[in-house]
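Record type: monomer structure entry
Structure origin: computed from sequence
Chain ID: A
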Amino acid sequence: MSINPNAHKGFARAAQLVLAYTVAVVLWGAYVRATGSGAGCGRHWPRCNGQTIPRSPSAETIIEFTHRATSGLALLAVVALLLYGFRRLPKGAPARAGAVASVVLMLTEAAVGAGLVLLELVGANSSGWRAFMMALHLVNTFFLLGAITLTAWWGAGAPRVRLRGQGAAAALMLSAIVLTLIVGVTGAITALGDTLFPKTSVGLNLSPTAHFLERLRVVHPAIAIATGVFVVLSGAAVRRMRPDPSTVRFSRMLAWMFGLQIVAGMVNVVLLVPVWMQIVHLLLADALWIALVLTAASALAERNPHGHVEETARSRLPEPAAL
């Protein structure tokens, strides 16, 4: 078996660490929103309350400033990963493209965060514009996590993705990705509503006089369950079409993640969406998204004329962990 020149164990491990750290930053960002600390630095960005390092900060300021600091480190991490890839990986390696996309998406992530602060779409703001920006933030976050995930996967020597000629497998995976993004968007908007209008009972407030964020709470669970069933069935179908070990493993992981999300969602509602449960729910959502990206990348990988994934050194390397 020939060694794939695109494989680099050290780079793949570094990308996995960057992915794990980025997920942690995303979860802390959710904590900022859930605790209403988004306005902790006032209408200032990147400085906090007009200062580089805030003096005598409140709890909200500490929470928001910590998020900004850790986000800055995340940007430095993806830039370092990009330089590492361009130095160690050959020209044309797919992991290089993944690293470039990761840097671009980290910059747009920072831009959306800055927009939320500068436009004062934080704190008690319950406008439609804030809901739109939260949805945009979620989509960018998912794309960012997907880019870093693919960077790690390709860095371990996995072949690049090819959509042409993949037939039903491509249609199923792309549909699953789009639908999962929609679920994520509705989840982000629902979480915003839970923060601004705390639940006092398990029931839903569908009164015409209720705020639109309260009325939209019914949308997310319905879409999430329907999409989850579709994603699990799509994974099972792709597993039969592409029965290689990676696709089988990741598609099964999808099913487990969906089951855990259903349980977490029910617990979240019964407990009236406490902050810690919101974080757990988001962590599982990120894990499900990463598993979906890996399933699609494995199922839609370039194959040799016999329909098999090209054997590479990745079989000798630890595969990227699905967080």
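Annotation 1: DSSP finds nine helices and no strands in the chain.
Annotation 2: The longest helix spans residues 59-88.
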